[in-house]
Amino acid sequence: RKEVEQDPGPFNVPEGATVAFNCTYSNSASQSFFWYRQDCRKEPKLLMSVYSSGNEDGRFTAQLNRASQYISLLIRDSKLSDSATYLCVVIPNTGGFKTIFGAGTRLFVKA
Amino acid sequence: DTGVSQDPRHKITKRGQNVTFRCDPISEHNRLYWYRQTLGQGPEFLTYFQNEAQLEKSRLLSDRFSAERPKGSFSTLEIQRTEQGDSAMYLCASSLAGEAFFGQGTRLTVV
């Protein structure tokens, strides 16, 4: 089993739609979680951290479910500019700070 | 520019040649990571350093790959006797606590 798993998509949604991605992780003692965004042929960039209590940043909401070992990202009112690959990131509690990326979920927002 | 910088941005090499890439992290960051990314995949963890110590190395990293961070600042990744399967984007990231910040990557093409 991969340490971090995501549905690769692609998700094709119209502008204004709400879309949600899930990501599962295998190490139950994982300590930190993030969502990154990666545009085509660009480096990944931090979108938001994921806190135990959940967090929201504008149209984006991230949640953590430790019992089921998954994190989620919800995007409301999708914009064309949201088209990108969304990478789930986990720092497992292995005594260090090795940072593991999922394979990414591709999102296409269409007019 | 105080972000993570990588050099070169692009490298084309013949199979069997050795190549070396450099990464300069954000200056106060003590952790430095190397990843490899191929088309349609997320970044695959290769290795990471805390200061000058290489704390973990992926099984993906064969004996032909070596990374150093001699003074705990910049790092180099060397690939010996390159193979066509080494063609990929090599990403470097650095962090202090939590999220990692990426450089723009070195795109390697082995012909």
Fold and architecture overview:
Chain A is 0% helix and 52% strand. Chain A has strands at residues 4-6, 11-14, 19-25, 32-38, 45-50, 55-57, 60-65, 70-75, 84-91, 100-101, 105-110. In chain A, the strands form two sheets. In chain A, strands 2, 4, 5, 9, 10 and 11 form a six-stranded mixed beta sheet that branches. With 111 residues, chain B is mostly beta strands. Chain B contains no helices and eleven strands. Chain B has strands at residues 5-7, 10-13, 19-24, 31-37, 44-50, 53-57, 65-68, 75-79, 88-95, 101-102, 106-110. The A-B interface holds A 6, 8, 32, 34, 42-46, 49, 87, 89, 91, 96-104 and B 31, 33, 35, 40-45, 48, 50, 55-56, 91, 93, 95, 98-105.
List the helices and strands and how they pair.
The complex is a heterodimer of chains A (111) and B (111).
Chain A: E1 4-6, E2 11-14, E3 19-25, E4 32-38, E5 45-50, E6 55-57, E7 60-65, E8 70-75, E9 84-91, E10 100-101, E11 105-110
Parallel strand pairs in A: 2-11
Antiparallel strand pairs in A: 1-3, 3-8, 4-5, 4-9, 6-7, 7-8, 9-10, 9-11
Chain B: E1 5-7, E2 10-13, E3 19-24, E4 31-37, E5 44-50, E6 53-57, E7 65-68, E8 75-79, E9 88-95, E10 101-102, E11 106-110
Parallel strand pairs in B: 2-11
Antiparallel strand pairs in B: 1-3, 3-8, 4-5, 4-9, 5-6, 7-8, 9-10, 9-11
